C-alpha cells in the first residue's frame, strides 16, 4: 500500500471516530443555534478535539492518531527530529506521536489572555524568566509544531514565537548560539480555510492528515443525515451565505424539527 492510500485509510477511520464521539459537532445533531467562531463568523459545525484523551475509547483513538501522524511526519517531513505540542489540544497528540514514532516532544505553555503575537510580546515583559516551552530544546533541533487543527494559521504563528523566544532564552543561559529550525506545522485536521496558503506565504510548511473541506466531509457522508451533510458542504464552499440571520433561523428550525 502506498503512503497516499494508507494516509487516506487512516484519515477516514479517524474522522469517523471523531464524529461518532461528538468531537465534530453539527447544528443539526448537536446545537440548533450553531456556533460563532473567534473570527465572528457563524458556523453550522464545530470541531472540538480538546476532550480527545477523556473518553473510554481514547486509548484506541490516540493510538491510531499517534501512529498515523508519526507516519505522516516520516513520509512528508522526514527532516523533523523534535515536536512541540501546542497547549492544550496539541499536547496529547504530540505525546501520542512520541510514543509510537520515537520522536521526542515538548509543549508550549498556555498563557491567559494571549491570542496573538502582540499579546505574547506584552505578556513576556511581565512573565519574566519562566519557560514558554516545557521540555528540552537542543542544538540542531528541527522542530515541527503539532496541533489538533488549523483554521487561519494565527495560533501556529503564536506557537512559533514561543519556540523562538524559548530558544533565545536558552542561548542566553548557556552562553552560545543554538541552531534550531522551526518551519513545519503538523495538524490532525485542516479546515482548509486559508491556512495552507498563509503558511506558504510565510515560508512555512503545513502538513495535515485530514483535509476537511476537500476530503474529510465527504468521508462523513454515510454517517450524517442528508440535510446535515448538504448544508455543511455548501457552507464550506460559501460561508458568507450563512452569515444571514434569516438563513440561520431556517437552519435552526430545521434542526429543531428532527
Keywords, please?
258 residues, alpha/beta, Rossmann fold, six-stranded mixed sheet, two-stranded antiparallel sheet, 9 helices, 10 strands, 47% helix
Contiguous low-pLDDT stretches (5 residues minimum) are none
Strands across the major sheet, in which order?
7-6-5-8-9-10
The gross shape turns out to be: globular
**Cα-based radius of gyration, to the nearest Å:** 19 Å
| CATH second-level architecture | 3-Layer(aba) Sandwich
Q: If you had to describe this structure to a student in words, what would you say it looks like?
A:
By secondary structure, the chain is an alpha/beta fold. The chain has a single domain (3-256), classed as Rossmann fold (3-Layer(aba) Sandwich), CATH 3.40.50.2020. It has 9 helices and 10 strands. It has helices at residues 3-20, 58-76, 90-101, 117-127, 154-174, 195-201, 212-219, 226-237, 245-256; strands at residues 24-26, 35-36, 42-43, 45-47, 82-85, 105-108, 133-134, 142-150, 181-190, 205-211. The strands form 3 sheets. A 6-stranded mixed β-sheet has the order 7-6-5-8-9-10, with helices on both faces. Strand 9 (181-190), helix 6 (195-201) and strand 10 (205-211) form a beta-alpha-beta unit. Helix 2 crosses helix 3. The protein is globular. It starts with a helix and ends with a helix. The mean pLDDT is 93.
